[in-house]
Design a protein that fits this description.
The chain is an alpha/beta fold. The protein has a single domain, classed as Phosphoenolpyruvate-binding domains (TIM Barrel, Alpha-Beta Barrel), CATH 3.20.20. Helix content is about 40%, strand content about 15%. It has twelve helices and ten strands. The strands form two sheets. An eight-stranded parallel barrel has the order 1-2-3-4-5-6-7-8, surrounded by four helices. β4 (about 100), α4 (about 105-115) and β5 form a beta-alpha-beta unit. The longest helix is centred in the middle third of the chain and has 18 residues, at about 170-185. The chain is globular, with a radius of gyration of 19 Å. Residues about 1-5 and about 290-299 have low confidence and may be disordered.
Length: about 300
């Protein structure tokens, strides 16, 4: 299992598979994860063509510098289009390192994807997109999937199915359920995109709330959102200094409880400080080779 600190997952940019003219921009972006989308952004009549076009997204680029982890959002694997997606991906010469499984409602959805795509030389990360009321209700069962690497909350589909608004308060229960479930499993929780392209202040407020709820990253509907998201989920120098002070105090005290300034420090605070410094170190680590086995997997 990958842990949240092993690689940054702060920002996720989704690009339609039917828009290959945007592929280079997505790959060169400052996103931590760039996904090519075979699902919502592709009309049913164009899905077969999109599967072929999407292969270009994963081809090696020897001239590229830093690049995101490259992945794909499938169609739901229990649908005919999802089955066709998996068959196509299994034949790609360059494979995605991350698979996002939409409308996940059972552990079977995750294991089905792993069963098709896992090979002796490549086992992609698999994230469940939780975006239905049934998915929220089934989170304890979904967490049983051995190959589950993370959760991503999908606000738009969830709100449409429930009949609620997209405001923070309306989605707080669902977000809390996703964040809590990810924490219970020790995997990253990624928040839904913010859908107003130009309201960067609103994006910053929502991203801060998601961070405080326990999310480690957020989707982006436009590259302009990436700097706000990356900044919010990157520990500041003051945060790192404070965390290191807690770690030092914890190492020096003979008891489980000590103080840093006026703050009481115990095991939970020490664990949080270590997690923060690990995330800061991960954010400074270059992206892995997209054509080697992912961290946490064996080739």
């Amino acid at each position: 299992m990958n842990t949240p600190a092993q690689r940054p997952v702060r920002s996720w940019l989704i690009t339609p598979a039917g828009a290959p003219d945007r592929f280079a921009t997505a790959r060169a972006s400052r996103a931590d994860v760039a996904l090519v989308d075979l699902e919502d952004s592709v009309a049913p009549a164009h899905k077969a063509a999109a599967r072929k076009t999407a292969q270009r997204f994963f081809l090696p680029d020897p001239d590229a510098g830093r690049h995101p982890v490259l992945g794909v959002r499938l169609n739901t694997p229990v649908t005919a289009d999802g089955v066709r997606d998996l068959a196509a991906l299994a034949d790609y010469s360059a494979r995605p390192h991350l698979i996002l499984v939409p409308k996940t409602e059972t552990a079977r959805d995750i294991e089905m994807v792993a069963g098709v795509l896992d090979t002796g030389g490549h086992t992609p990360q698999i994230y469940a997109l939780i975006e239905t009321p049934r998915g929220i209700a089934a989170l304890p069962k979904i967490l049983r999937a051995d190959r589950l690497d993370g959760l991503l909350f999908g606000a738009a589909d969830y709100a449409a199915l429930v009949g609620c608004g997209l405001a923070w308060e309306a989605l707080l229960y669902a977000r809390s359920a996703v964040a809590n479930s990810a924490g219970a499993r020790g995997i990253p929780a990624i928040d839904s995109p913010y859908f107003d392209l130009h309201d960067l202040d609103g994006l910053q407020r929502e991203t801060e709330r998601a961070k405080n709820l326990g999310f480690l990253g957020k989707g982006a509907v436009h590259p302009a959102h990436l700097p706000v998201i990356n900044s919010m989920f990157t520990p500041s120098p003051d945060d790192i200094t404070a965390a290191r002070a807690v770690i030092t105090a914890g190492q020096q005290t003979p008891s489980a409880i000590t103080t840093v300034g006026s703050q009481m420090v115990g095991p939970p605070f020490l664990a949080a400080a270590r997690a923060l410094t690990a995330r800061a170190n991960a954010a400074r680590t270059p992206a892995p080779d997209q054509h080697s086995a992912p961290e946490g997997r064996t080739a």
